[in-house]
Amino acid sequence: MIADIFFVSFLTAGISAVLAAIISVIDAIVNNYGDITIDINSGKKQLVVKGGSPLLSTLGKEKIYIPSSCGGRATCGVCKVKVTSNIGPHLPTELPFMNDEEKEMNIRLSCQIKLKQDISIDVPESLFAVQRFKTEVISLKNLCYDTKEVRLKLLEPNSISFKPGQFAQIVIPPYGKLKEQTIRAYSISSQPSHRNVLEFIIRQVPEGIATTYVHTKMHEGEQIDIIAPMGDFYVHDNTDIMICISGGSGMAPFKSILFDMFEKQIERKAVWYFHGGNTLRDMYNMELFQELEKKWPIFHFAPVLFKPNPQDNWQGETGLVTEGATNKFGKEINLAELADAYLCGSPGLIDASIKILTQAGLDASKIYYDKFA
Q1: Residue 122: which of 239, 234, 38, 40 has the closest Cα?
Q2: From residue 345, how far is each of 40, 348, 351 by CA, in Å?
Q3: What is d(CA 286, CA 283) in angstroms, rounded to the nearest whole number?
Q4: Is-contact 251 289, C-beta < 8 A?
Q5: pLDDT of 1 above 80
Q6: What is the C-alpha separation between 38 and 78, in angstroms, rounded?
Q7: How far apart are the first and last CA of the chain?
Q8: Could you tell me the CATH superfamily of domain 131-230?
Q9: What is the H or E stretch that residue 26 is in?
Q10: Where are the beta strands (DSSP E) in 258-338?
Q11: DSSP string for 125-185
């Protein structure tokens, strides 16, 4: 009986091994697409690459870095490119991120395009200036119980130019069950005048691959790669009233934007910054912005707590951060005047903010946002 069991187990294992080998051979044959040509911007660049991999990662290997916030998982919808050749219809994974105009223009998610044939694409030429930097972690600071400030010194190249509000992709090395490196996007929170050091505000996401690494594995002296600068979230040049709304780690780009504006003494009629959290323990950098308010006459900082604890002794605005902003409309903020708005945070916060701003009379074309994946 025991011999029979061993024989069956051996036979089963043998069959499984043979089937695995057959599948491997078939996969290699079927998925051998050979060399593929990628034509970029009507011949400005042409790449000859091995087929079979996603367009996003293939371009990255060729040092053309398409912005992505989710590392190619098709959850952020950021890695859009215009495809000017016929590669077939949109995939179901792409459609949630496309409006009718983008579908008509054949805008595609580069992480979902598997290179099976020659392809022509259009990308912003600014992406050709994006670089991969080697950096060193020079400080890790707890801002609150679930949020860290990470400062990276640039080693090679050793300086960077960027617009306040832009982001970088941090390359997370393999660790634990993560067998290969992955990439996640984080807004730069430091000012562009600090060309040799970049700062980030990174909130712990439960079971998040990248944030778990940052909060539990990353250490001072460690070398880490980043890809930067990326993104088109930045302040538009005018003197209108400026409204900023954020929650959680959505403070990061506003720290860069607002302190850069103060440093350069940018003229605005008024600058309002609303930042929300659940209770006082969720808030950080409060004193930093309160000090800025004292030094910068046009700046108004309005933190909002959703449900402050009794021990918080909170005297400020309460409720959703959008409610805190709404309370100022028509009173201290007149949206009948020229104004623009900048939003950063979760999809829910962005959608709610757009709703209250447009209801208050702000033209939707004057609302700019960075929606976290």
Answers
A1: 40
A2: 32, 8, 10
A3: 7
A4: no
A5: no
A6: 20
A7: 57
A8: Translation factors (2.40.30.10)
A9: helix 2-30
A10: 271-277, 299-305, 317-318
A11: GGGGG-EEEEEEEEEEEEEETTEEEEEEEEEES------TT-EEEEEEPPBTTB-S-EEEE
Give the span between the Cα atoms of 119 and 15, in whole angstroms.
40
pTM, 2 dp: 0.86
Q: What residue segments make up the domains of the chain, in order of their start?
A: 35-127, 131-230, 241-371
Instruction: Give the chain's length.
Output: 373
Mean pLDDT, the chain, integer: 90
Whether the upstream peptide bond of residue 157 has omega within 30° of 0, thus cis, is yes
The answer to whether 59 and 49 have CB atoms below 8 angstroms apart is no
Percent of the chain that is helix, strand, coil (3-state, to 5): 30, 30, 40
DSSP conformational letter for 196: S
Rg of the chain (C-alpha set): 24
Burial of 88 (0-12, 13-18, 19+ CB in 10 A): exposed
* Crossing angle for the helix pair 251-264 and 286-295, to the nearest 10 degrees: 20
C-alpha 370/C-alpha 158 separation (Å) is 27
CATH class of 35-127: alpha beta
pLDDT tens digits along 311-367: 999 999 999 999 999 999 878 887 777 899 999 999 999 999 999 999 998 999 999
In tens, the pLDDT along 218-263 reads 999 999 999 999 999 999 999 999 999 999 999 999 999 999 999 9
Which CATH code is given to the segment(s) 241-371?
A: 3.40.50.80
Could you tell me which of 326, 322, 313, 316 has the C-alpha nearest to residue 289?
Answer: 316
Angle at CA of residue 180, ends 174 and 183, nearest 5°: 85
Assess contact for 288 and 259: CB atoms under 8 A. Answer: no
Q: Report how far residue 245's alpha carbon sits from residue 248's, in angstroms, rounded to the nearest whole number.
A: 11
In 3D space, the residue among 313, 52, 319 whose CA is nearest the CA of residue 303 turns out to be 319
CB atoms within 10 A of CB 230: 22
Burial of 101 (0-12, 13-18, 19+ CB in 10 A): exposed
